[in-house]
Predict the 3D structure of the following.
Amino acid sequence: MYLEYFGLAKPPFRITPDTHVFFEGSQRGPALHALKYAIENGEGITKVVGEVGTGKTMLCRMLPTILYDDIDWVYLAHPSLSPDQILQEIARELRLDVDEYSDKLMVMRALHATLLKRFAANRKVVVLVEEAQEMPLQTLEELRLLSNLETDEHKLLQIVLFGQPELDEKLANRKIRQLRERITHSLYLPPLELADIHEYLNFRIRASGYIGPDLFSVSSARAIEKYSHGLIRRINILADKALLAAYAQSTTEVKDKDIKRAAQDSQYEPRRLWSWSQAVVIAVLGITLVSVEDASLKASPSTPTEVTR
């Protein structure tokens, strides 16, 4: 609706990942190159953790665009599968001649055989698992066993796990500690900070065809930071609605009040920041409570009261 008004060739803030407008700031670029390095060097299992909406799927989609064509990719977007089901899913993605009634041993043999063939043809196989925190422990253990498939010097199958912080909690379980030991690279995607948000907003708008002064000021970026908490998905939603509001008002200025209205429409709560006075009050209350507790302990008898029979 507002594309022509702002001179845009395409919507700048879609929530679906667009690899043509990958933002390398806030450690996204280094994380992508770290993943590229791990895959090129045949590392077994790599892990990427970040909160909802921090750009994990974008990294996942970017990998095939920066690596050579000698890789066969297996995408597992719905990992809440049993160990047998995940084997079937990987076999299906690799187009193996197995059906849903094939037993586990048959699928494993077929998978091992095709991995050896592809290795002999100088091809790699990389499994990308999204929402890995949803994967059952038994299925995670099955992935570890698959990572054991190797030649004398090289892994036949590489795995990249993308998940929310709950994935780390799951990997802390002693039942799968062997899997945790196999993870060679652990990457974390933090939320964007104010300077990154300001840069990101104007980067995306210009990558979509806009020519002119910055549409998003530091002030509007600060307002978006307040309600987005630095999460890219929320940033995109707020920015899109703010541009629509500017278009409706026939202005090229993105106003803080429009961002606040967009946040209310999206039911985003502002980030709660403690002021110095609030921090002092909390500290005083804490000291008071400790003092009261100490006083009550001193007032209590040092020896237990004898029960009369």
